[in-house]
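hey m, so remember when u said the tokens were messed up on ur end? i reran from scratch. heres the input so u can diff it against urs
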Amino acid sequence: MKTTSVMIVGVGGQGSLLASRLLGNLLTAEGYDVKVSEVHGMSQRGGSVVTYVKFGEKVYSPIIDLGEADFIVSFEKLEAARYASCLKDGGTVVVNTQQIDPMPVITGAAEYPADALDKLAAGGMHIDAIDALSLAEKAGSARAVNIVLMGRLAKYFGIPEEKWLAAIETTVAPKFVELNKAAFDLGYHA
């Protein structure tokens, strides 16, 4: 059984840590050896955040080097571009089409690259772009972007949807379970 590597990237406060915990819990329940690592960066100041999830028969380290990620789940377009070099040939980027301006753009020192996803696709990457923010709002909260993206990622894993929903029940606080199930379903069926 080969080892599969998933990078979850975003901006602080978007829920990447919950997404990686959900994915780790699901894969552990499926019998995989799973390693999860969190790299926070300047997460409390809206900076870049990345988490690594590796799973397989036996995994020795969660760290994902350049060209090793099978999947990158990006909560924002520019974060997809920032970590694109980590994707292996034939890998997939699942990306939210939302734009969150980094500090240099906010201060006027730089411009947001409007064509970031087009450049990645032109370079041969498989880009699965989804308006996760709109779907999260439809589910009941803009904060559910992370679970919408997990729903989209689930399409690539071959694990039945009901097992993902069960993992949501064991990972998310009880008062948010139904909202997160709705967000997952919208991402899965988008």
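this time it looks ok to me. Strands lie at 4-11, 33-39, 48-56, 69-74, 87-96, 126-130. if urs says something different then somethings off w ur setup not the seq
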